[in-house]
Design a protein that fits this description.
Number of strands: 0
Number of helices: 4
CATH superfamily of one domain: AhpD-like
CATH architecture of one domain: Up-down Bundle
Distance between the termini: 12 Å
Radius of gyration: 15 Å
Strand content: under 5%
CATH topology of one domain: AhpD-like
Mean pLDDT: 89
Structural class: mainly alpha
Largest sheet: none
């Protein structure tokens, strides 16, 4: 969904998907401010602990692998175009 890649805040998302995007943003940029309340918000949208665990694992993996690639100077593949184009 290109709208999510451009700006998830204005994309037509379900409340649960919006809550997952909020989690991803916070875990990526303000991880030290995570609280139990952040997880409770996901539970309010019907996610169980397994789904929350899986989401956190995926978010953390993408943060990890991006940092590894950036640190090692891995070049972006030029055969993959930017989202939304």
């Amino acid at each position: 969904m290109h709208a999510v890649a451009r700006d998830w805040r204005t994309a037509p998302l379900s409340p649960a998907d919006r809550a997952l995007c909020e989690l991803a943003e916070k875990l990526t940029h303000r991880q030290r401010r995570m609280t139990e309340g952040d997880l409770d918000r996901l539970r309010e949208h019907g996610l169980d602990d397994r789904a929350i665990h899986d989401a956190v694992q995926v978010i953390a993996y993408f943060n990890y692998i991006t940092r590894i690639a950036d640190a090692l100077g891995v070049e972006h593949e030029d055969f993959i175009g930017p989202w939304g184009e």
